[in-house]
User: Fold Universal stress protein from Paraglaciecola chathamensis.
Amino acid sequence: MEKIIICIDGSAITPAVVGAGKWAANKLAKPLCFLHTIEKTNQHGADDYTGSIGLGARSSLLEEMTKLDEQRSKLALQFGDELLESAVSEARKTSLEAVESIHRHGDIVEALIELESEARLIVIGRKGVGHDNEFKAIGSHLETLLRKVSQPVVIVPEEFSAPSSFMIAYDGRESADRALQKVLDGGLLHGIDCHLVAIKNNEPDLKAKFDNAAARLVERGLNVTTAFLEGNINEELVKYQVENNIDLLVMGAFGHSRLRQLFVGSNTLKMLETVDIPLVVLR
Assistant:
């Protein structure tokens, strides 16, 4: 059964991530699955210091270091168990009965790829432990995750409340059309005011594609406001979002080739660094 997978790590952003996941679960009538991973940087018990003996290191200190690492690994496991138990308990208090949890060792992206066949939606914070006070900090796994998974990903900032409006950033390219189709087919954003926004670019017949996209949204029953603008893509999108109090942004993931992104950057990542609202990335 398709699930809403919520990635939690106990950082300050966790309550917002959980809130976004519960909102999505209610909107889509899907079960929740909380995921916590203990990554290698958090589980040092397997470290091997025996090679230091030949360098003259004191074996008693090495033994103590090994014991500390083993204790740290046990505490990380206990913390994860308690975090998941608390999240499941809180979710069930809000009438969400179909709730489960998964505890994994290893990389969060690898865990999500393994679980993707069970996922309807992935919810994750824009940053994790170690970056709580840095607005522009982006979780080290996000770009890799967005490139490797095909399911929609909701990226949550420090705060979350149920959105009353959303904006689709439309550029006429294939990735934007795929994102538009997922909005049309899904139910997550239905019933919420929609703003379809395009920034003039070199895409052939962009205006015609834009008008067709708007017509399809209206036909599906969405309340649509359109804006066809000129200027810098990221600056104009952020300006429009602020001026119109948009609560949530929808984008297609990585519309350009990796080579081009190497030189001109990625609009997806730039928006992640700039906006302080939830971002839904669709492939």
